[in-house]
Amino acid sequence: MQDLKGKTAIVTGASRGIGREIALLLAKRGADVAINYVSREADANAVAKEIENLGSRALTIKADLSQMEAGRELIRKVQSEWGHIDILVNNAGITRDKAMKNLTDADWTEVLDTNLGSVYATCSEVLPIMMGQKYGRIVNITSFVGQAGNFGQANYAASKGGIIAFTKTLALEMARHNITVNAIAPGFTETEMLAQVPEEIRQKIMSRVPMGRFGLPEEIAKAVVFIAAEGDYITGQQINVNGGVYM
Ligand code: NAP
Question: From CA 240, how far away is CA 247, in angstroms rounded?
Fold first, then answer.
């Protein structure tokens, strides 16, 4: 199905993990996709190659989204290259997990700037473009942790909870411009982010998941692409894709 032919999309943190699968699925549906990354250039180029093999255009753009100006510049580059931006997926995210008593100011700032500051920066730059087009689909990747909290993740939970509140507010402000803003909240998903967790803790986490397994990045991507491609009357929502770990 090539229903996104002629549309352009930006996916932040698309060199691997969930972002990579989102970028590839958008391209399979026909969209041209700009792939943002911060360090893994070869991985980003590999995603671009796959997208081109699918018959879509790809751009790879290095930008450290912990810096707001870099987020703004990312949007400006895609706009100047392609002349329109239809879909923005804010996916880039990091963890710096520690119990609160050990958390440093740097752990706090790095996670809040990368996960939440980046969403503010890209949105604020893309909104005038989307308002001019009278069309836009913004999907922000949050986490069930932003709703439920999680031991050792005060900084991450705050950033993801912030994304949910930001998403709802932007949805209200943008609805009359035909710009929808939604959040997808994955549960534990098989990527390098989860691979950082020691095996013993992974097993404990798994026992909390009613479906008895971790999610796959492709399963998150399907929900993102559904919202972006078919969610014309869906806005201000957070959609859980989490195997039942939080209901
Ligand atoms: P991942 O495998 O660790 O990949 C992270 C991606 O973000 C990479 O493409 C990385 O680029 C990019 N990135 C990191 N810091 C960046 C920065 N400062 N500027 C720009 N890009 C940056 O992560 P993931 O598991 O796919 O997670 C994707 C999103 O899903 C995140 O927002 C995460 O919080 C959320 N999520 C994940 C899970 C899970 O269990 N995995 C659960 C809930 C929510 P490089 O490759 O260049 O380093």
Answer: 8
